[in-house]
Specification:
10 strands, 10 helices, 278 residues, eight-stranded parallel sheet, TIM Barrel, globular, AKR5G, two-stranded antiparallel ribbon, alpha/beta, Glyoxal reductase
């Protein structure tokens, strides 16, 4: 059992969030997602990140049920999709997600993308869900600094988490500094840039030095930047390998060398131009 997977960060409302979890983006509903989530839980993972648009919440819920682990030991995240943004529609979307997952509450609920004009109404719905005790923490995903500033200018509860694309080709230094300053926990989706970084020579060299894989080096880099990370895999040996990052530490020089790989290059959409589903 990989007990270090219990390591947490404390969100600004006191809730403890695991520093490493399993992401299930592009993991197919049915056996594929059920087996990958069960493999993760079997190997000590306690954090699972899904979203309405992934269309696999039901499978995640089935895996949680079949794993036999107590609900309160897990940290489950889902997200409201763009087409459901708005106050009433977000409340309905939350109920749908909860029913599919077969859970009584979520640990974290996020606005998936900012869009243009509805995220403040959506946020009011998240604040209500939080105050009603339906979710232990609320946050956003893919928000830039200007989105966060706009949201915080008149929100009642500050976001606890901002989940963004973050990897050595997209280091988001200004955003990370802003979130740290505001007490918003940053979380990395696509930490391996969907596999595009695994042949990067600088990373390969550092990995050889520590007798680790490139993926392990990147995930360790996340942790040392105080960024929560949720690598996706459907292979059990890879799920185990991704978690084996607590027994080494990158030097300051390694960290700087990895930081220098930044290209402001994305695998996904840019938050300012993402309009799908709105």
């Amino acid at each position: 059992m990989l007990t270090n997977l219990k390591e947490t960060v404390t969100l600004h409302n006191g809730v403890k969030m695991p520093r490493l979890g399993l992401g299930v983006f592009k993991v197919s509903e049915g056996e594929e997602v059920v087996e990958s989530v069960k493999a993760a839980i079997r190997n000590g993972y306690i954090s699972i990140d899904t979203a309405a648009i992934y269309k696999n919440e039901e499978g995640v819920g089935q895996a949680i049920k079949e794993s036999g682990i107590a609900r309160e030991e897990l940290f489950v995240t889902s997200k409201v999709w763009n087409s459901d943004q708005g106050y009433e529609t977000t409340l309905q979307a939350f109920e749908t997600s909860l029913n599919l997952l077969g859970l009584d509450y979520l640990d974290l609920y996020l606005i998936h993308w900012p869009g243009v004009d509805k995220y403040k109404d959506t946020w009011k719905a998240l604040e209500k869900l939080y105050k009603d005790g339906r979710v232990r923490a609320i946050g956003v995903s893919n928000f830039q600094i200007h989105h966060l500033q706009d949201l915080m200018s008149d929100c009642e509860i500050k976001p606890m988490v901002n989940q963004v694309e973050f990897h050595p080709h997209l280091t988001q230094k200004e955003l990370l500094a802003f979130c740290k300053n505001e007490g918003i926990q940053m979380e990395a989706w696509s930490p391996l840039k969907q596999g595009q970084l695994l042949e990067e020579p600088v990373l390969t060299k550092i990995a050889q030095k520590y007798n680790k894989s490139v993926a392990q080096v990147i995930l360790r880099w996340d942790l040392q930047h105080d960024v929560v990370t949720i690598p996706k895999s459907i292979k059990e040996h890879r799920i185990v390998e991704n978690a084996n990052i607590f027994d080494f530490e990158l030097t300051q020089e390694d960290m700087e060398n990895i930081d220098s790989l930044n290209q402001d290059s994305r695998a996904g959409s840019h938050p300012d131009t993402m309009r799908v589903g709105f």
